[in-house]
Design goal:
By secondary structure, the protein is of the alpha+beta class. It folds into two domains: 428 residues, Kinesin (3-Layer(aba) Sandwich); 179 residues. 40% of the residues lie in helices and 12% in strands. The strands form five sheets. Strands 2, 6, 7, 8, 9, 12, 15, 16, 17, 19 and 20 form an eleven-stranded mixed sheet that branches. Strands 3-4-5 form a three-stranded antiparallel sheet, with helices on one face. Helix 8 crosses helix 15 and helix 13 runs antiparallel to helix 14. The protein is elongated, with a radius of gyration of 49 Å. The termini are far apart. Bound molecules: adenosine-5'-triphosphate (ATP). The site of adenosine-5'-triphosphate (ATP) has 23 residues, from helix 7 and strand 14. Adenosine-5'-triphosphate binds next to helix 7 and strand 14.
């Protein structure tokens, strides 16, 4: 399957109605599905089928395959713009999306598709209107029976008797005169009691009487009757899409700008109808699905699609695909048309890609809880798809052989496949460029209990009020056309190019049928009534210069191919023994260059969508189909043995499919090799990176070590110097100490001598006093005497005459510090 589950933009409680089938990504309406083998036939190509009123019992029963689908697609109407000199891009659109609009109310490019077109539906028959929006016939939607079944509402009891018809007539089918009005479809939400399982299962009182057949609506209590293009009460979103979406999507595919917006009070179902949920896909997923189906069904064209997604919150624009980018602004070009810049646009090639993009954008949207809606959109969101297309000159109608010569010479031996470039440089045709805008407006609300919600509400209401004023001015019947205040809000600035005339516009007015919401519903209906009067003159946009992205990409591919040719044509290396290595590396470089150019060409080509590659993408998701024995037999039988042209064609088709398979397997091989090459490159890059990191770390360590060493050395030197200083100091101290020691010893000696002499003297005196010994007795033997004398301790230093002693200053101080009484 090429469809991935579609995740809705907003979270909704699953519809009370079980889906008719499990919800694939962007599931098609069962009404849109083809009959054969579940395969899908373009809903756009089979609009006839949609117009058939489905059986009452099963309003979404698959229609029979339209034979028109099998007709050669060349029968499609070819529409060419007759561009005047002033048809150069009149408005500067989004970056890379310049467009040439055709001025004038009677535009030569405003073409009504032929009713007999196989793409556009059946010949004008019952219910197939002509002209205006009706040029693309309307389809029926769900019946009252379904609505009643879904809502569990007794129509008689609720005053909705008029809904009891199983078929609805096409409302407001045709408008002539080259002018269209805005298409307005009212979508009536189920009553609250049916939305929440928590709510009592009683029947909500309904304030409105709805007649889906005539598109009329009136309050039970009386009051004005409102008439719209269509009214849908069914829960299934397919019904709304059929009424107000599909025609516009088709128009967009044909080169018309188209805008669909949902308007209504908060919680009335705007997001539900636009985005829906997996079980009940909304307008956006259905539109995307149809866009891809249209491409599948138009092999004569090639397409380039891109998408953008932005929101307006509190009058500030935010690019939902690139929310961190700088401020997004609305600017005006020289034609005074507003455009948004800068805005990220992404080229998309599959539905799954678009679904992913929508999911990404939705995650960045502002939502909050209000008194009325658990997840209320607090912003207006604008999802846009830009569609570029052009005729494929190399297209050969179904059944014919692929005969066009390739525009790019291939390398010898390269397999020529139908995927070779389709357009040679210089043969580019006119490009159609259009934009489909799907806008989910924030809900208007009268009052809310929360502060933040209140300020948001003020912005929301202001922009909606400005929208109303703009609509009022546009529909004014005053002779002098009033000023249209587009400028007063971002929303109206963005809508200006569409509302001012050259786009197709549909408004889905959503309403809550409860009496509690009557005032808001009335104001929604009044708005819808007014907007219906806006007259449009939609024009088909064609671009003849190279402003279209499709042309730019094609030119780029041509340039790359030229480079590729030049690289391939480069003379082969002249190997010489001496220069063998250099030559080898040159050849390697050349091969890499070729590979790179081929990859680039392939990458750019893959952005283009054709019925062929879209189908290939879809099939590549399926398991490979074995070649049937019949085919093998036929392809191996000698050519010419089948004489009929039919047989020959079948053979050729088989050959073609073999070549395609071969091509596919080669592409796969290329992809595999590329992946291997990238992996190898990555591995070697990783290895080199690791090496460099290691080296770097080592260098860092070395650098740091170098530093540490330096630091250590510095410290060491410092320590050494300090040590030296200390050594000197120590030496000084030691010298001083030595000196002091000497002095002390000297002093001791002196004292001892002094004591000895005193002792001697004393002893002499004693002797002389005792035996009259002479006082000149020798002091020899003083020491033993000193040691032995018990009286020595009693010798008082007081006897020493300090003044007589030879002390140094230091010695004196030492003695002083010792507290000796010598100095006292
Ligand atoms: N037709 C419907 N069928 C079933 N459920 C619906 C339908 N319309 C709305 N709902 C439910 O009603 C609730 C509110 O719907 P939704 O969020 O779409 O309203 P809203 O108009 O977008 O509100 P807001 O302006 O606050 O964003 C949702 O839970 C949604 O599922």
């Amino acid at each position: 399957m090429d469809r991935m589950p579609f995740v809705p933009v907003r979270k909704h409680k699953p519809s009370s109605t079980p889906p008719t089938s499990p919800g694939p990504c962007f599931p098609r309406s069962p009404a849109l599905a083809g009959a054969a083998g579940g395969s899908f036939l373009s809903p756009l190509g089979s609009s006839t089928a949609h117009n058939r009123l489905p059986p009452a019992a099963d309003p979404f029963a698959p229609p029979a395959t339209s034979p028109a689908l099998l007709s050669p697609p060349t029968a499609a109407p070819r529409i060419r713009a007759k561009l005047t000199p002033s048809a150069a891009p009149r408005r500067k659109a989004l970056p890379g999306a310049e467009r040439a609009d055709v001025p004038g109310h009677h535009s030569p490019v405003k073409v009504r598709p032929a009713a007999s077109s196989p793409m556009l539906g059946a010949p004008n028959g019952a219910g197939a209107p002509a002209g205006g929006f009706g040029a693309f016939p309307k389809v029926t939607s769900a019946s009252l029976a379904q609505a009643q079944h879904e809502w569990g509402v007794d129509a008689a009891a609720t005053g909705m008797q008029s809904l009891q018809l199983s078929e609805r007539r096409v409302v407001n089918g045709g408008k002539g005169g080259g002018r269209d009005n805005v298409l307005v479809c009212v979508r009536v939400r189920p009553p609250a009691a049916k939305l929440t399982s928590a709510a009592p299962q009683g029947v909500d009182e309904l304030a409105w009487q709805v007649d889906e057949r005539s598109g009329k609506l009136q309050q039970h209590a009386g009051g004005p009757e409102y008439t719209f293009d269509s009214i849908v009460t069914a829960s299934r979103n397919e019904a709304v899409y059929a009424e107000a979406g599909q025609d516009l999507v088709l128009a967009a595919m044909e080169g018309f700008d188209a805008v669909i917006f949902a308007y209504g009070q908060t919680a009335s179902g705007k997001t539900y109808v636009l985005s829906g949920n997996e079980a009940n896909p909304g307008i956006i997923p259905q539109a995307v699905s149809d866009i891809f189906s249209y491409i599948r069904d138009h092999p004569e064209k090639e397409f380039l699609l891109r998408a953008s997604y932005l929101e307006i919150y509190n009058e500030t624009l935010k690019d939902l695909l690139d929310p961190t980018a700088g401020p997004v602004k609305v600017r005006q070009d020289e034609q005074k048309r507003f455009f948004v810049h800068p805005l990220r646009e992404e080229v998309v090639t599959t539905e799954a890609q678009v679904a992913a993009l929508l999911r990404r954008g939705a995650e960045n949207r502002h939502v909050g809880q209000t008194d009325f809606n658990e997840r209320s959109s607090r912003s207006h969101s604008v999802f846009q798809m830009t569609i570029e297309s052009r005729d494929d000159p190399s297209f050969a109608p179904a059944g014919s052989v692929f005969t066009s010569p390739p525009s790019t010479p291939r390398r010898p031996g390269a397999i020529q496949t139908p995927n070779t470039p389709r357009l040679a440089p210089g043969t580019d045709g006119v490009v159609r460029m259009s934009r489909l805008s799907l806008i989910d407006l924030a809900g208007s609300e009268q009052a809310t209990s929360q502060m933040e919600r209140r300020s948001e509400g003020a912005f929301i209401n202001k922009s909606l009020l400005t929208l109303e004023k703009v609509i009022a001015s546009l529909t004014s019947e005053a002779k002098q056309k009033p000023h249209v205040p587009y400028r007063d809000s971002k929303l109206t600035q963005i809508l200006q190019p569409s509302l001012s005339g050259d786009a197709r516009v549909a408004v889905i007015a959503t309403m809550n049928p409860s009496p509690a919401a009557i005032e808001e519903t009335k104001s929604t209906l009044k708005f819808a009534q007014r907007v219906k009067k806006v007259v449009l003159k939609a024009v088909q946009h064609e671009v003849v210069d190279d402003k279209a992205l499709i042309t730019k990409y094609r030119s780029h591919i041509a340039m790359l191919e030229a480079q590729l040719r030049a690289t391939l044509a480069a003379p082969p290396g002249t190997p010489s023994q001496a220069d063998l290595v250099a030559d080898h590396s040159r050849q390697q470089k050349q091969a890499d260059r070729v590979h790179d150019l081929e990859r680039q060409v392939e990458e750019f080509r893959s952005l283009f969508l054709t019925s062929q590659n879209i189908e290939k993408r879809r099939l590549s998701a399926l398991p490979p189909r074995p070649v049937s024995p019949v085919k093998m037999t036929r392809s191996s039988s000698p050519s010419g043995s089948d004489s009929t042209l039919q047989e020959r064609l079948l053979d050729l088709e088989d050959e073609l499919s073999v070549v395609r398979e071969e091509r596919d397997s080669l592409s796969d091989r290329v992809a595999q090799l590329e992946a291997e090459r990238l992996a190898a490159a990555e591995t070697s890059t990783d290895a080199r990176l690791a090496e460099l990191t290691k080296e770097n770390q080592e260098l860092l360590v070395i650098a740091r070590n170098a530093d540490v060493e330096g630091e250590l050395k510095r410290q060491e030197r410092k320590f050494e110097r300090t040590l030296e200083r200390y050594k000197v100091y120590q030496e000084g101290l030691e010298a001083t100490l030595e000196q002091e020691r000497k002095r002390v010893a000297q002093f001791e000696r002196f004292i001892l001598q002094h004591l000895a002499s005193q002792t001697d003297l004393l002893a002499g005196r004693r002797r002389s006093s005792a035996a009259h010994l002479p006082t000149s007795a020798s002091v020899t033997g003083f020491a033993p005497l000193l040691a032995e004398s018990p009286d020595l301790d009693a010798i008082s230093p007081d006897f020493v005459e300090l003044d007589d002693l030879q002390f140094s200053q230091a010695g004196r101080e030492t003695i002083k510090r010792s507290g000796s009484r010598l100095l006292l």
